[in-house]
TrEMBL record, chain A:
Record domain ABC transmembrane type-1: where: 63-257, 369-559
Protein family: Belongs to the binding-protein-dependent transport system permease family.
Species assigned in the record: Paenibacillus selenitireducens
Family matches, as Gene3D superfamilies: MetI-like
Descriptive protein name: Sulfonate ABC transporter permease
Record carries keyword Membrane: yes
Main location, first listed in the record: membrane
Automatic annotation (TrEMBL), chain B:
Annotated organism of origin: Paenibacillus selenitireducens
UniProt xrefs under Pfam families: AAA_assoc_C, ABC_tran
Claim: Transport is one of the keywords in the record: yes
Protein name: Nitrate ABC transporter ATP-binding protein
Family annotation (SMART domains): AAA
Keywords: ATP-binding, Nucleotide-binding, Transport
Length: 574, 435
């Protein structure tokens, strides 16, 4: 019998420098996690508020704390994705509720809920900063999780029938099915969506580390708080330090975490032939060269497998009694009853709170909502105007796009709210009103989604169509009208949907900004919610959020979905 | 008689149609599979061969009836089967070894035992040296070897194969068939029976001991032919080709009882039309004329390099429209068919129109509906809904496409693809007058 090269034990390769590097990196990561994690549960009272030092030497520590938050939120998102997605994919009844639910949740502005969740978590962990810590993580989580869950759910639903049947015939257990079929099949989409989510997560991190609830400023040690503190003090060097730190952090995470994962995940491509161009990563190459990793992995999986078999052999003799149908049905009904009970209690309470507002104020908020809707629309439109020519230029020129893509990626991940102070200084200097000034602030975070999509659309134009246009002698205008615009249209719409969703979220932080003691404010739903949160005015918070949710969902259904359907039908290149 | 391994009792499989009626795909299938048998299941496309195989595997439940394995009714996946898929169904992210080991996932063995077993099977199916390769690195034939290995490693009593060779090129398929037959006839594998779904009559006669032939709409067993020639069989042998001919004539025979049915009832039932576009049919009839008005079906299919799935509908359509008749595996043009073959383009359309109107009652209805409307127009959606009531949604699309294609070729009506409606052409110069 032949033992082959893929089994590392027989393969007497030496323990090399790659192994040493990986071990050292692992050790340091372990230490750092413990170090940063320690700071999470310091006591927290009104007197004992943690203060942020603007000393640049503290930046690595703050960056580490922020990073830890991001990864915890990401891990929670993954866990949620797998559980939620799997239930939705296999349980027909649950699916009918669960899928529309996350569809609404993903279009709802998460930041509006921040204050509510902060108070809830603070109540859960009284006297400890852990509650605020969880609230921040929860905010990042809610910003990341929905599209990951969607992607996993869709992948599981679209597993090709032969593969599913093969798994059935092989009688794979639920766990094997999950690890051998469902996760691998969804891997490519999941990695891609995770990357997008993680990039978007920085924004929520920066927004949630430093917030004011109930007239109380809470600042978690982290890079977002550092920036907020620097803005409060008007300390321009500190602002620049934090921006640089942020950029370094984004690049490091990209190089050390995402690139290797993308390179590794290529083997999960569901294709029957070899691809020409494969994403590469230097960090992944080192990991691959570290043989001890494969060795340990092999050993552990063999051990786990054998243990499982042994336990199964023993437990095979035991027959667990099945609960009678009535009992399990009863439990299902009970759960439903409890859920319904809680829902009605909270709906009643929310209505009770809202009733305290005058009719006048209720209507006012609707008008504010329209103002913000207008700003969101203008910011999306402006973004389209500049990204279409630039995106097409980048997309049609492969050389250019290879240089531009990574730069755009960093810019897109950079949390827009950390660049706000620079803009505010300009606004103060030139006396620009926030009515207009808040629009560029919204664009700052959302334009990248459109740019990405336009580039992707331009790259997808088949070269024979381009050649045909050249031969037909189309003028520049005809070329754009007949080829470029129709082919990027579906991509453009996808980008706009994401961008306008992001702009709603951004409105909460970009319609009201402060610099030292100056507060710049534009009337709008975003600033309304932000102020209500600061003052802890519950009726206002609840009504503001409800109006925003309704507006976003209605706009999505009435406008974006329709446009998307048209673009899918008419302009899809197959 | 040897031990009965699988027993099918009055298996029915059906779907509910939107109009509330029930359409049966399989009807009252009774079948016994014995130890030591290699059984082929043959039938026209859409006859539910693959559905039957999946019912045996326990992948889909029958609407009615029972599947017994060793005398026990199966619930869920059949514990005694392994399965080979047409599309290989390999997990692209697992290596050859890991794919094969997947078949042992549920066995209470240690990792080392599983490894040994998997490697020996890999050896057996001729994949030695490819253990660490991923499926995408392999050719089609190699991939199917992995598929076979994964099924065999479970040591199933019954090996189910769903058109295992149809995704492979001719030479590779031939090679793989021989290797599999060798494992089977020389008893190198503990498998007790093989059931193979195929659309190649020749493949069935070459490999199996018994051919089950299914009819269509709904599928019943029309013939159960035992093949007693010793292995290895010679395809040039006269006994071989006469058996192939015999199966061909069974498969192409029009069902007699249908013609005796009351004409009214037949109209109400809306007989399905074979899925063949007018262009292909015309080419086929021209070809028969070239070959001297009469030709052996089996040879013709071979010559055209068409599989049964593609070939049978053309033959059926030619029969249905009265262009050709089948006799003992030979196809011959009727007078109309011969006339059609040599006619010029416009005359040909004339003949086609006459034939379509006489033989496809639906055509008359469509033109009648269009004529009775004041603007002579009707949305595709309308006809689709009518069709859906009879055939189910997917089939309805196909049927309507064919009917529209035939009607356009016969110039009975015209069709606007963008706006999706059928209309009568009043003025050839401007078909869109009253839009």
């Amino acid at each position: 019998m032949k033992w082959n090269g893929f089994i590392p034990m027989s393969n007497k390769q030496k323990f090399g420098w790659a192994d040493i590097t990986v071990i050292l990196v692992l050790l340091s990561v372990l230490y750092l996690t413990a170090h940063f994690g320690e700071g999470m549960q310091v006591p927290f009272t009104a007197q004992h508020e943690p203060s942020i030092s603007l000393d640049p030497s503290m930046l690595p520590y703050y960056a580490g704390r922020s990073l830890l938050r991001m990864f915890i939120a990401f891990g929670a998102s993954l866990l949620f994705t797998f559980i939620y997605g799997r239930i939705a994919a296999y349980n027909r009844t649950a699916e009918k509720i669960m899928i529309p639910a996350i569809d609404i949740l993903q279009s709802v502005p998460v930041l509006g809920f921040l204050s509510a969740t902060v108070l809830m978590f603070m109540a859960l962990f009284p006297g400890s900063l852990l509650g605020v810590e969880f609230a921040s993580i929860f905010a990042i989580f809610t910003g990341q999780v929905w599209n990951m869950t969607f992607s996993f759910y869709h992948a599981v639903k679209s597993i090709p029938r032969p593969l599913a049947e093969a798994a059935d015939i092989q009688r794979l257990s639920g766990w094997s099915r999950f690890t051998k079929l469902e996760v691998p099949y969804s891997m490519i989409g999941l990695v891609w969506n995770s990357m997008m989510s993680f990039g978007g997560g920085w924004f929520f991190l920066a927004a949630s580390e430093s917030i004011s609830v109930l007239n109380q400023d809470i600042q978690l040690p982290g890079i977002g708080s550092y920036m907020a503190m620097a803005a409060d003090h008007g300390n321009i060097p500190a602002i620049i330090y934090s921006i640089i730190t942020m950029i370094i952090m984004i690049i490091l995470v990209d190089q050390l975490f995402w690139r290797p994962i993308v390179a590794w995940s290529q083997k999960f491509k569901n294709e029957q032939t070899e691809a020409n161009e494969v994403p590469k990563s230097w960090a992944f190459n080192i990991l691959k060269r570290a043989h001890f990793i494969q060795y340990i992995q092999q050993q552990i999986s063999t051990f786990l497998h054998d243990t499982k078999i042994k336990i199964q052999k023993k437990s095979r003799t035991i027959h667990w009694p099945q609960p009678p149908a009535i009992v399990s049905k009863g439990i299902t009904w009970l759960i439903w009853a409890i859920v319904l009970g809680f829902v009605s209690i909270y709906v009643y309470q929310a209505v009770y709170e809202i009733v305290q507002l005058s009719w006048h104020e209720l209507l006012d908020v609707l008008v504010l909502g329209l103002l913000t809707a207008f700003r969101v629309f203008v910011s999306t439109l402006l973004a389209v105007i500049w990204t279409v020519p630039v995106g097409v230029m980048i997309g049609l020129n492969p050389k250019f796009s290879r240089i531009a893509q990574p730069i755009i990626q960093v810019l897109a991940s950079f949390p827009a709210n950390m660049a706000f102070p620079l803009f505010i200084i300009l606004y103060l200097k030139f006396g620009i009103s926030m009515n207009i000034g808040s629009i560029p602030l919204m664009m700052l975070g959302t334009q990248w989604y459109i740019l990405f999509n336009v580039i992707a659309g331009a790259m997808a134009i088949p070269s024979d169509l381009k050649e045909a246009s050249t031969i037909l002698g189309l003028t520049r205008w005809q070329y754009w009208k007949k080829l470029i615009l129709p082919s990027i249209f579906p991509f453009l719409i996808t980008g706009c949907i994401t961008a306008s969703g992001g702009a709603w979220n951004a409105s909460i932080v970009s319609e009201i900004v402060s610099w030292k003691t100056d507060v710049l404010e534009a009337p709008g739903l975003g600033s309304y919610i932000a102020q209500a949160t600061t003052h802890g005015d519950w009726p206002q918070i609840i009504w503001g959020i409800i109006v925003m949710c309704i507006m976003v969902v209605v706009l999505n259904r009435l406008m974006w979905r329709k446009l998307y359907a048209i673009s899918e039908k008419k302009f899809k290149l197959d | 008689m040897k031990n009965t391994l699988i027993k099918l009792q009055q298996i029915c499989k059906g779907y509910d149609l939107p109009n509330g009626t029930h359409m049966n795909v399989l009807e009252d299938i009774d079948l016994n599979i014995h130890e030591g048998e290699f059984v082929s299941i043959l039938g026209p496309s859409g006859s539910g061969k693959s559905t039957l195989l999946r019912i045996i595997a326990g992948l889909i439940p029958p609407t009615r009836g029972k599947v017994l394995y060793n005398g026990q009714t199966i619930e869920g996946t059949n514990p005694g089967v392994g399965m080979v898929f047409q599309s290989f169904a390999l997990f692209p992210w697992l290596t050859v070894l890991e794919n094969v080991k997947l078949g042992l996932e549920n066995k209470p063995w240690t990792e080392a035992e599983k490894m040994r077993k998997a490697l020996s099977i890999i050896d057996m199916v001729g994949l030695d040296g490819f253990e660490g390769a991923y499926p995408k690195e392999l050719s089609g034939g190699m991939k199917q070897r992995v598929g076979i290995g994964r099924a065999l490693v479970m040591e199933p009593d019954i090996l189910l194969m769903d058109e295992p060779f149809s995704a492979l090129d001719v030479l590779t398929a031939e090679n793989l068939k021989r290797d599999l037959l060798e494992l089977w006839t020389e008893k190198k594998i503990p498998t007790k029976a093989i059931i193979m779904v195929t659309h190649s009559i020749e493949e069935a006669v070459y490999m199996s001991d018994r051919a089950i032939i299914l009819s269509r709409d709904p599928a019943c067993v029309t013939a159960d032919i035992s093949i007693r020639m010793p292995h290895w069989r010679d395809k040039q042998d006269s006994a071989f080709s006469s058996l192939v001919d015999r199966i061909y004539s069974i498969l192409t025979k029009k069902r007699e009882p249908q013609q005796q049915e009351h004409i009214e009832e037949q109209k109400r039932k809306m007989e399905k039309v074979p899925e063949v576009y007018a262009g292909a049919l015309t080419g086929f009839i021209e070809l028969i004329e070239d070959l001297g008005n009469s030709v052996d079906l089996y040879k013709l299919a071979e010559q055209l390099n068409l599989t049964l799935e593609d070939f049978l509908p053309i033959v059926e359509a030619a029969q249905m429209l009265g262009f050709a008749t089948i006799h003992h595996g030979d196809i011959a043009l009727t007078d109309t068919g011969a006339e059609f073959a040599i006619a010029r383009v416009l005359d040909r359309k004339e003949i086609f129109r006459t034939q379509v109107v006489t033989h496809v009652p639906m055509m008359e209805k469509i033109t009648w509906i269009l004529e009775s409307k004041s603007n002579n127009k009707m949305a595709r959606e309308f006809f689709l809904e009518v069709f859906e009531k009879h055939y189910g949604s997917e089939e309805a699309e196909h049927q309507l496409d064919i009917i529209i294609d035939w009607g356009r070729y016969a110039e009975l009506f015209a069709y606007n693809e963008q706006a999706k409606y059928l209309y009568l052409e009043q003025d050839a110069s401007n078909p869109l007058t009253d839009m």
